[in-house]
Specification:
A hairpin with a 2-residue loop joins strand 1 and strand 2 (53-55). The longest helix is centred in the middle third of the chain and has 30 residues, at 208-237. The protein has a two-stranded antiparallel sheet with strand order 1-2. It starts with 22 loop residues before the first helix and ends in a 5-residue tail after the last helix. With 362 residues, the protein is mainly α. 62% of the residues lie in helices and 2% in strands. It folds into two domains: 12-96, no CATH class; 121-214 and 277-361, no CATH class. It has 14 helices and two strands.
């Protein structure tokens, strides 16, 4: 080998991912694979390089049909070439295929089913999130600023009666679209590629329909939960409680004591959280499963719920750490959230990889 091998290793729970390879060597090995495919009759003729694309000549029939055939060397072959170049042998827990792409399966054809991880993995997700944040700090901060700007703009528009409320609902619906795009951004950083602002909006050009469907389901169920809570409060405390909560009436007009109002608010909030928790579990992994795993919206939300349910203890560890970090981030005028928010997104990606992609370690 005439040039040194350049490789970047991902630390996701002993998962090895080779990102960069010596260009000349990998192209030479790809070409050899193409020649072998031509000799075996899989492709019509000898391959040739067009830039960085390995192409094969078209048959007369394909030319007549206007087919644009581009030779694609399998990722399994590329990975084998990478191992040959680096002088390593495949480990039992290494995937020899890509991470889940379009479709409903993971590397090696394994079904997209969650696995149970150790409690300490909840802390490791933060370590992984920080690892994904530090190489691209400037771009992460720019994305955070853009999101803050969008939120501020939405806050101003929300002051407009009716239209503002509709836009708030639309923001909830589009939430998974933005998160799905950022999952692609995390995958890019994980593979040593640059993070760009375009990743924030990538969900509007890839898997948009399924991501919007996830948002619609989430928003619809959230509204339904809110209606249920309001109905419960009316059933227990009467219609007058709504007037007090909205500021349209006081205790002297309704005959309801302030203590009763406090109890009503606390109970309503508690029941809201109890009903919302399963919904949060259903949406936690859903954008990643849709964007990176190629799953349908309902299948992704079911898998996300089961993934969270099977890993309650790691998520408790993760949640305690998040609570501490959230307090610390809020102390310096909330400026710490410009770091905590991107890192949290990166931890979502790390938890997805750990629960759904590192199945060989189960």
């Amino acid at each position: 080998m005439t040039a040194p091998l350049a490789a970047t290793i991902s630390t996701h729970h002993r998962r090895v991912l080779i990102v960069e390879l010596c260009g000349a060597e990998i192209k030479r090995l790809c070409y050899q694979e193409g020649v072998a495919a031509a000799r075996s009759g899989v492709v019509p003729g000898q391959p040739f390089w067009s830039g960085d694309v390995l192409r094969f000549p078209l048959t007369a029939g394909q030319q007549a049909e206007g087919v644009n055939l581009v030779g694609a060397v399998s990722i399994r072959t590329l990975f084998r070439c990478a191992l040959q170049l680096s002088g390593r042998k495949t480990m039992a827990n290494e995937s020899t295929s890509t991470a889940a792409g379009p479709g409903t399966s993971l590397p090696g054809g394994t079904a997209l089913e969650p696995r149970t991880v150790e409690a300490g993995r909840g802390a490791s997700w933060w370590v992984e999130g920080w690892r994904l944040f530090t190489p691209r700090v400037g771009m992460w901060l720019l994305i955070a600023l853009i999101l803050v700007g969008l939120v501020c703009l939405l806050g101003l528009v929300s002051l407009i009666p009716f239209i503002g409320q509709l836009l708030l609902l639309a923001c909830d619906v589009l939430g998974p679209v933005f998160v799905g795009g950022l999952m692609l951004g995390c995958r890019a950083v994980d593979r040593g590629n640059p993070l760009t602002v375009a990743h924030l909006f990538a969900g509007f050009s890839q898997r948009t329909g399924p991501l919007v469907t996830v948002g619609l389901i989430y928003t619809g169920l959230t509204v339904l939960i809110s209606v249920i809570i309001v109905g419960m409060m009316i059933a227990i405390f009467g219609v007058a409680i709504l007037g007090m909560l909205t500021g349209g009436a006081d205790a002297t007009q309704t005959g309801i004591s302030l203590d009763s109002v406090v109890v009503a608010v606390l109970l309503g909030f508690l029941f809201f959280l109890l009903l919302l928790l399963p919904l949060i579990m259903s949406i936690w992994f859903a954008p990643a499963l849709v964007m990176l795993g190629g799953m349908s919206p309902t299948a992704a939300m079911k898998a996300s719920f089961h993934g969270c349910l099977r890993n309650v203890v790691p998520f408790l560890v993760y949640g305690v750490i998040w609570l501490v970090l959230a307090i610390l981030a809020s102390i310096p005028l909330g400026l710490g959230w410009f770091v905590l928010a991107p890192v949290t997104i990166a931890t979502l990606y790390a938890s997805y990889c750990d629960v759904f992609e590192d199945k060989a370690n189960a």
